[in-house]
Structures are given as C-alpha cells and as structure tokens.
Amino acid sequence: MRQFPLIVALCLWAVTLQAQYLANPSFEGPSLLGQPPDPWEICNDNSSPDTQPGHWNVTSPASDGDTYISMVCRGDSSALANQVESCGQQLLQPLLAGNEYQIRVDLMNSDQFGHLTNGGYWLYYDIPTSLRVTAGNAQCDEPQFIGQIGPVAALDWITWDYCFTPPIDLTYIKLEAGYMPDTTYFGVIFVDNMRITATPSELDLGPDLIVCNEESITLDAGPGWYDYEWINSVNSQTFEVTESGTYWVSVSKCGNVYSDTINVIIEGAIVEIEGQICEGASYAFADQLLTLPGQYADTIPTLNQCDSIINLNLELVDEYNLNLEAEICMGQTYLLGNQNIEESGIYTENLVSSAGCDSTITLDLTVNPLIVELFTEEICQGQSYIFAEQVLTEAGEYSDTLQTANFCDSLVILTLEFADILQGTLQAEICGEQSFFFQSQELTEPGTYIDTISTPDFCDSIAILELSRIDFLESEQVITICPDEFYFAEGADQNQAGTYIDTLQSLNFCDSIVTTDLRIANYDFETQDLNLCVGESYELNGRIITESGTYADTLNQSPDCPLILNSNFTFELCECNLIIPNAFSPNGDGLNDNFRAFGPCEVENVNFYVYDRWGKQVHHSTAINPGWDGTYNGEELPLGVYVWMLFYDLSTTNEIKNYYLDGNVTLIR
Predict the structure, then answer these.
(1) pLDDT in tens, 218-227
(2) How far is CA 284 from CA 203, 207, 643, in A?
(3) Of 42, 92, 243, 393, which is the most buried if we count CB atoms within 10 A?
(4) Pairwise CA distance, residues 87 & 194, whole Å
C-alpha cells in the first residue's frame, strides 16, 4: 500500500523537528520580585527580571500558563544608569551550525509598569523596548548575536517570529531587554511562551494517491511549521481523508506562506473532484494539461479490478484576499506596496501569491487622533508652578504637546488653581512648672491652642497646638568599654563593671534618673583567607603584601575592643595566554608540520575548528595536541588561508573561566 513509506518518512522527520530546546519555555513558577523562574538564571547581578504578575503595578494575565517575566532597561543618572535586565539557560540540546531555526515568542509592553521615586512621583517604564537574543557556550555568554525583536509597543500579547542560522554550535541562550542609550530612556518588555524549532526544508504532501474504497489515509504536512490550514479550514498537522478529492494545505514559517496540493482517489466508485487553476495556468488530469475551466472525466483501471470513474469539476481560482489592520499616529505614513498612506481608510494592493495566482491585500488603516490628557494642580497666592518649561504664577488653563508610549503626540491640559487655607497640628510637652511660647503667647497649662500663620513660602494655615505636661523620667542603658578605658558615671571615671545611677537634666529640662549597666569587653580574634593572582599586591594596614603567607595585625573597631586579624594570603597563577601561529608547513620535515596552540598551562574542554574559505569545516579536535596536519579525510588540502576558532576552559583555585579565540592561518607547501 502506497501510504506506508510516506507515513514512515514523516515520523522520522517528526523526531528531528519536534525536539525540545528550552526548559520551562512558558516561564512558569512562583511570582517573585527580582527572580526569574527555574531554570532561567540571572545574567546581571545589579538588576534582574521579575516573575509576573504581581509586581510594579503589573496585573495583566499570562499569554500561556499562569506566569511570565518582565525585563526593564534604564537610562537615568543613578547608580543603575544604562542597566538592562537579562536572563538565560542551558539549552536541552545544542543549536547546530548551519541549521535553520525559528524563534516564536509572545511579547507585550505596559503603560502601567513603574514605581514611586524618592521625590514622590510615579516613574513609568513605558517606552517600547526590544527583546535582544544572543547565544554562546557558557551561561550568560553572548558571542553569537541571534537577533533583536521589536521594539514592542503593543499593550496586548502579540506573537513574533524570527529565523536564524547559527555559524557555530550553541549550547546556551540569553534574553535581554534591548534599547538605544538615552539619558531619559525607561522601558519594559514582557516575555512569555517562547518556542525554538528547527525549520523544515520543504512542504511536500507526496505524489497523488490511489486506494481502494475500504482503505483510508492520513495526510501529514510534517512538523516544524506554524499556522496549519487544510481545506475546510482544518487546523492541524494531519488531515484524515475519507473520500476522493483534491486536498491542499497552507503553512507558514519565518513569516512566509507555503502550500501544496495532492489528489486522493478511492477506487471502485464514481469520484467527484473539485479542481482549481489560476488565470493562464494549466492543470494536469488524465495525461492532459487543462487550461480552461469545465467538466472532465477519466476512468482509472487498477490491479484490484476496482476501476474508478473520476469526474473533475475544474474552476478558475479567484483572487486570494489578505486583510490587514494597522494603526499610525496623526502625521505619519504607512507604506503598502508603492503607496504612502496618511489617512484612515480601506486600501488595496495587488500581488502574486505563492501559488502563482494574483492576490489582493486589503489594508484597514486607522490614524490615531491627538490624545488629550487633563489634570489639575493647586498653588498658594504668590507662588509659581513650572509646566512645559514655563513658570506660571496665575490660575488658569495651560496646554503642552507630548509624545505618548506608542509614539503618538498627545495634548496635556493643565488647570492651575489657588489652594485653600491649610490646617496643621503641633504637639509639645512641658515639665512641671515650665512654660511654652506659641505665637507670642506664654503658655503654662496643658490644653489645645489655635492660631493663624502666614509665611512667604506657604499658604495661610491654621496652626493647632496640643500642649501636655510630662512627669519625671527614668531610663536605663548598657555601656561596654575595653579593659583600659573609662566611663564617667556618678561623678567619676569608672573602670569596674557594675550598676551606676545618675540624676540628669534632659534636653527638655525635665530631671531624669539614668541607670547605667557598665560592662567590660574582651579582645577579639578573626582570620581571613585571601586569594590573589601572581603579580598582584594587597595593602594590609600600611603594608604591601606580594607573597603567600600568614600576616597578623591589630585593628581598631568601635564600640568593641581592638581586633587581632590574622590574614592568610595565597598567590596563584590566574591567567594563561596561548600562542597560536599564523602559518605552518606540513611537509614532513619535522618543523612546524602541525597547526596548534602553545601555552604554559593545562586547558580543558577544548573545541578546535578549522574552516576553508567557503566555510566548510575541514578539522575538529577536542585537544590542543597534536593539532591539524593540513589534511581533510586523509587528503592533503591546497595551500591558502584558513579560518580557525578555539573554545577552551582554564581552571583556577576558585573557578573555571571560559575562553574563545579565532583568527586566520596560512597553509604553506
């Protein structure tokens, strides 16, 4: 039966293309501030992504699942200036050099994300921001730029597609909020439901099929595509055929649309087939090339002696219509084909579709009008208010034109008013028979007093004083001194542990009793371990340390006694510079016969690649020695310039560092 080889081939293809590359692609996890969900890891210690919703005024639901991440970029003048948030993970399997991959991710912006500053105003992170994607072979490493998606201005989730072909194998991926440096730039991007797939090379439903009427067949467009659409609007990878006919499927990848058609004939019955052709095209049927619409018939004998009569109803295909919706700001233009459009309305553009038929694109364009925002502020008589670089001193209505989050102009209208009289309450205390002066009044009794105050900096206000009388005060304190120190108590310098009682006069002139628990502290000892590189130095309380050993020093610490600090210094080799020649001569004379790296130290996890001038890999090894002998598959390669790349790790006492080198080498014969 003809369908079995077809199904087997498609299953093998599915194993390759449906492989998973990301763990937790939908960013599912607990809603945490400053922490992405596992296994995504932070790549910038100064500022990290958040797991949303629930932080920084974010309430929007996820595009897929329950949670997603937000990443911001800053351009202010603070210590976090020009910081961007990023995270990454190790891929479940590597992205292979030369293969094409498609990233599909849901992205969104926000007009509510922000925080309250120390100055008391709300700072919005609402500038459209891009998602920058890089990859490498170590956590948060980014030697390979994959692409930048955006900037994203939409306030609802939108799915973005992006295709790329890596030049080298990649095992880690990094996501970062991207922006152009600007001292007033504050942006945020929400990320959810990120998928990486290996793209299929072609769409092929196979040859036309003939089966007997007791059989059935499943058509399979293959995995790795997006937006499957079969005849009758069936959206799936496969399609079950139950009757003879012409079947087609439309799929997409990397922003392009592909389609294929197959005829399925069930023998032993009269089969009605609906066919379509474009204007000026032909249709193959019963060894004929049909160019005109109409009714055609053919009888097909089979080995099973269940002849089929095929009736073809061939129709002329109408134009393929694609409807688009878009928005622009007032004063902007939209490019549709060769048309520059500036006004709202319905516009069309005629194109040729992937099937060769004429198609029509219909654009529904909306030009966003000017946005008007109203707000009201109050000032006192004689004060001023700064608005749109103006110093305002009179009540009234003022306007200014600004740019909104979607880059459209908006009109801001300020209504400035004079404030009403303010009222404030002051609380004060007196001791015993003392008095308190309030607005030229000498008060000796507790109670509530009211006065009106007018100053050049504030509006007239009503001041309310609540005056109370306090009683005798008592307090206790614990004082710790070193054995050779003294503390003044009970009229003398004390050096013995114990309890001392003093009668004092407080700042508000009320007598108080202070009970002091005097304690004598002990000396303390601490040890610290310091690792430095050979050639570095360390200043320890005025001494310059350059060699390994243990050094003791006495340090002052307050309020405790002196600290005896023992410092253990270890100096070690931290870096290793490899030497790589730019030419070699594999002629068998024992001199410079192999191309390799030289160095004074041991390296690990080596991956050494050599490519010819056309990008073909001619050598790969996982060790420094013996290097490349100038051959490929046992054949000597011609003289010329070749490109090399070297990845390796160097272990120190504290960590493993990753290195990457590349360059050119000349093969001489």
Answers:
(1) 888 888 787 8
(2) 20, 13, 51
(3) 42
(4) 13
